[in-house]
Amino acid sequence: TKQLTSLYQHFEKDFKMGAAINQRTMYSSEEVIKKHFNSLTAENEMKFESVHPNENEYTFEISDKIVAFAEKHQKAMRGHTLIWHNQTSDWIFEQSGRLVDPETLLKRMKDHIDTVVGRYKGKIYSWDVVNEVIADEADKFYRDSKWFQVLGESFIEKAFEYTHLADPNATLLYNDYNESNPGKRDKIYQLIRQLKDKGVPVHGVGMQAHWNIYDPSLDNIRKAIEKYASLGIEVQITEMDVSMFAFDDKRTDLTEPTEEMKALQMERYLQFFEVFKEYKKHIGAVTFWGVADDYTWLNDFPVKGRKNWPFLFDENQQPKEVLKKIMSNR
Ligand SMILES: Oc1ccccc1CN[C@@H]1C=C[C@@H](O)[C@H](O)[C@H]1O
Prior knowledge:
By secondary structure, this protein is α/β, with parallel strands linked by helices. Helix content is 37%, strand content 17%. It has 12 helices and 11 strands. The protein has an 8-stranded parallel β-barrel with strand order 1-2-3-6-7-8-10-11, surrounded by 5 helices. The longest helix is centred in the last third of the chain and has 20 residues, at 259-278. The radius of gyration is 19 Å and the shape is globular. The two termini are 20 Å apart. The site of the ligand Oc1ccccc1CN[C@@H]1C=C[C@@H](O)[C@H](O)[C@H]1O has 7 residues, from loops.
């Protein structure tokens, strides 16, 4: 059979093709990573709680391993993520048994960013500097996180300014999910526009793209890319997976996807890549939140222990039928 060409080589002139990896999938999917991707992101290993468990303790052993893996395979490396309300060590928000004061929290934030970004300076082309600060609720702008409670919205610009100082050559993104939903899209747009108007070094938006076979609509995806691009910033797809289930579908009866699900997923992937090609001059990289169906965070979210099959490669690291179609310029 004709050798399948490489996914990243097929799109080399358009955008980077990326994948999130972890200590297990860097081995189980090593061949697929080598052949099909030219950008990598650590799924959990560079998050605050992973590298900075205590105020005076940094633990870089595992993140260093992943960066070394990327260098060994000559893959570009993305940084995920510096300032977030999730998977962040509790100590940073505490001080003598109470909520930390603003100037102490800022000092701790700067220490974290200086140390982490400084360590990988020149090795990471793009950072998800701030993750998921926009509220999902229509009647709220910001998520009510401890960052926000202590510092108000100022923590966002500080994070970007500190990161830019620590690595002036890295592309700095604001990253979020449900990014194509019109209501949230408009708030993300407002946030980035406000930051840029203040001269804050925000260079792009990360559309996480945790999509599924039913939504978001192609029209909403297009409108979101256009709206973000109109800010004159880079657009990245940062955490793509195409779940076989609608977000509120809690069924747990399937041990493999139905034929109908597989057909729908194929059609959706073909449509998504058509859109990415249409906006390729705005899109810097398309990163999946994993590699193959043998491992996905969606096996535990939103339904714990429920199997999902969201990627272009199956549980045996084999390309799904849709991959050939994506690369035949269909
Ligand atoms: O799709 C969502 C729905 C609700 C909350 C968070 C998300 C996505 N949140 C992402 C998913 C997985 C994590 O590994 C990433 O770090 C995070 O950015």
